[in-house]
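User: I'm writing a tutorial on reading structure tokens. Could you give me a worked example: one chain, its sequence, then its tokens, then a sentence or two explaining what the tokens reveal?
Assistant: Sure. Here is the example chain.
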Amino acid sequence: MEKRRGISREETIRWLLERENPSVRYFTLVDLLGKQEKDEEVLLTKREIMAFGPVPAILAKQTVEGFWGERERFYLDKYRGTVWQLILLAELGADGEDPRIRKACEFILENSQDRESHGFAVNRSGKTSCGRHSEVIPCLTGNMLWSLIRLGYLEDPRVQAGIEWICKYQRCDDGESEPPQGWPYDRFEVCFGKHSCHMGVIKSLKALSAIPADRRKEKVNRKIESLAEYFLAHRIYKRSHDPEKISKPGWLKLGFPLMYQTDLLEILSILTRLGCNDSRMAEALTVIENKKTENNRWILENSFNGKMLVNIEKKGGESKWITLRALQVLCGQQRFPAGDPADN
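And here are its predicted structure tokens:
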């Protein structure tokens, strides 16, 4: 394939491997360079994630009970409450065995998960002291399950029950028929309206993609296929019934972290991780390729800085997180040279 803009993978990878950002360094070692988890350099970098940078800064603001901010506003306090810190800790590759993170996971499972359906709710019920049954929403359920799986809770029965919620209730229809009736579809029009909510679909797919392939049940594989097809039918960011029009223009601005929102890079990243290589991804992949700068890096175009407990990178500047994600996708789709920097 013809090289564009003088691609130099060696320089880009070395930049990502700089020690000032141990999380990016860790994922670069594992995902781009193929290092094993038991590799000495990988183990050292995982320890560094917990020693300096945003992870210890976030943990320093945690209460002794395991939550952040007000106990009852674990979701509603955007983006300083417990839900959002758990997502960010999982994104950053924090150690799920750390007692402080275990406390946060247990807090969310006890206060946000609905014990009847096992989905996750935006509020805690005063009667049951767990997630309010009438306020379970799909994007939160997907985000919490993804975070918990990443932090080592896959085999926990409560997480397994949450995965069942996705398989049973998460919609992926395209507004072509009447939406289903009854719980949970009879509340929150934005989540359960005529057309499936994009955010619910992608966060549910993200959660299921975190399950190792050899540990996925058949029903999970079927759900992954239907959720993935939903975005392929949309050409990732187009209108499925009118692919000449952009469905979500905001998705063209790449950000990290994304919290309950998404963008075309996150969607492509999830599909690529699942081994999807479909011609309907081509336009979105080209958008990512064309966003590369002359320095062979990508820019942080969307940010929650100022709204979070800890800022992540500088909006408008070269982003190690966006560059890492872009290379994970482009290498996975064989649109960027693979291998170690020493090969170049």
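What the tokens reveal: Confidence is low (pLDDT under 50) at residues 1-5, 338-344. Strands lie at 238-239, 242-246, 298-299, 318-319.
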